[in-house]
Amino acid sequence: MQIQKLKQLISKILIKYNLNKKDAEICAKALINAELVGAPSHGVSRLKMYCERIKKKVINPKPKIKIKRVSNSVSFIDADNSIGFVAADTGIKETIKIAKKTGIAFVGIKNSGHYGLSGYYIEQAVKKNLLAFAFTNAPPAIAPHGGKKTIFGTNPICFGSPTNSKIPFIFDTSMSIINRGKIRVAAKLNKSIPKGVALDKFGKQTTNAKKALSGVQLPIAGFRGSGLAWMVDILTGVFVGSAHSGKVKDPFDDFRGPQNIGHLFIAFKNNLFVKNFKQQIKVNINRVKNIPKIKGEKIYYPGERKFFRKKLNSKKNIKIPSSIKKDLDNLLS
Amino acid sequence: MQIQKLKQLISKILIKYNLNKKDAEICAKALINAELVGAPSHGVSRLKMYCERIKKKVINPKPKIKIKRVSNSVSFIDADNSIGFVAADTGIKETIKIAKKTGIAFVGIKNSGHYGLSGYYIEQAVKKNLLAFAFTNAPPAIAPHGGKKTIFGTNPICFGSPTNSKIPFIFDTSMSIINRGKIRVAAKLNKSIPKGVALDKFGKQTTNAKKALSGVQLPIAGFRGSGLAWMVDILTGVFVGSAHSGKVKDPFDDFRGPQNIGHLFIAFKNNLFVKNFKQQIKVNINRVKNIPKIKGEKIYYPGERKFFRKKLNSKKNIKIPSSIKKDLDNLLS
């Protein structure tokens, strides 16, 4: 489907589900971005879920988002159970505004929902010459080291930096070996998942996507990934005042209430300490990219391949699997 | 050796090497702490190296450390090539002071050296009811994903949080599968290292500690660990204005100049956004610790086992390998 046409279709669906035009377009842009960077697991395949949550009154399509300025460089946002894209859009705009003014920004967001890809927001800050972090929690997917029940989300950590080129440095990683979204898409399309990334509910390795969803995803780097996921659970759950330690609701199958996800954005001017950041980041990237390579390999910085993928995909139509196309048609009818 | 006696011995040696009494005691406390938490790789085994660097004038024993207050919540410290312990001690004290006053603190430190264990500093902030991050760079040890030459340091990330108990949550991980310090100790004691953690200089797996030191350490979680190490290189190198992209000098065998290591400390009050942090962090830890466990396993939060180890070790003498005891005697003679 043509990109513009798909964007309009998504907006139209969300407006039908009571979002205002501006918010619907914010969501459409974020979902299209996920498709273009090659993360369809975070793209239109999720639209049906968002609409179901609105219908069942666990996403608020007309939120009254409150921004409380805690101090010069700190804001706290109550997203009023808005769709996550709108909460995060509000959050990153506030973060950028504060950081541009005071040099640093520290913004917590509670009562939010799944906001898609962290890198999408961090890229907006990087384009304003800021370095930035995004943390967010997510529904249970990972067991702590030593445990056999999921309690932490995939809890991504994202960091971005200007590079003095048009291709930003965007490092965005979940704490699970593969994204839960990828397992969801595999389950939907009846495909299998790689070995060694998940256990079934009995604690046995599985390549069956559906069994993995009801089991446990394995964290990156064993106890270290487990520790990083716990850190994000504290930062975006306990510290920001949202759900934590296993209480974030799964958006796909738990409609008993809002997800109550929390986010934390931190941003800072690249010239906070030094005047030559732009020159030195270029030196840094050139030096790293030019070291001897393993045969057949190239060295990319985080975000670089995604940038090229998006550039390429932006010239083409977006492929929508027929099962998801059917979902979209149903949502509009 | 008795703990107090060892502490006095270290101080005495460093005073002989021209540190003032206060700074010598700061170093002695940090080195003893490393021994007590079970990280002898960061303990007295390094004293000889520090003294050699002072002797060769690449560590400044009488630094004029300058603290520049950039804004209410931001300070920038020029450590004047002091020994890393003193730079980091100055840095964490400034971080705590600012965060207690304004709610958040953001402190960059340049012209520093190896400061030992990040967790030692973060623990000091956590004891003041702050959540805190520490980032630091380090001499080349890891190759970027796709490369076969070391350029990033082990570049640890450390995060701490109050727990409403006397045992702080301290997550402290380097981006290499094992600490470079452990490989150094193994090389010194002619012991082998585990399989799968390092390559020799020809790119082949090795369990020989000396070959690993001249080769490449493998990052945790492949390209993700490599990306995290690059992130820390940008934050503490490019952003803070210290050496980066392979230019941090190895403290053990590069005496051509100071290391020029950079650190970044970020800290924030636990009640910045919510009033019930202390109650909710207890709920969080209890819930996670009480999930079903893999047979024979317990669930510890990061820092918990280290705390117990330190408590136990504080009642005993510290074992010093004879080769290191000989070093200490030589330093004093």
Sum up the structure in keywords.
homodimer; alpha+beta; two-stranded antiparallel sheet
Kindly describe this structure.
Two copies of one chain form a homodimer. Chain A is α+β, with helices and mostly antiparallel strands and 333 residues long. Chain A has a single domain (3-176, 219-273, 311-332), classed as 2-Layer Sandwich (Ribosomal Protein S8, Chain: A, domain 1). Chain A has helices at 3-16, 21-36, 47-55, 84-102, 118-126, 180-188, 209-213, 223-238, 277-289, 304-313, 322-332, and strands at residues 66-71, 74-78, 104-112, 130-136, 157-161, 169-173, 198-199, 216-217, 261-269. A seven-stranded mixed β-sheet of chain A has the order 1-2-3-9-4-5-6, with helices on both faces. A two-stranded antiparallel ribbon of chain A has the order 7-8. In chain A, strand 2, helix 4 (84-102) and strand 3 (104-112) form a beta-alpha-beta unit. Chain A is globular. The two termini of chain A are 18 Å apart. The mean pLDDT of chain A is 95. At the A-B interface, strand 3, strand 6, helix 8 and helix 9 of A face strand 3, strand 6, helix 8 and helix 9 of B.
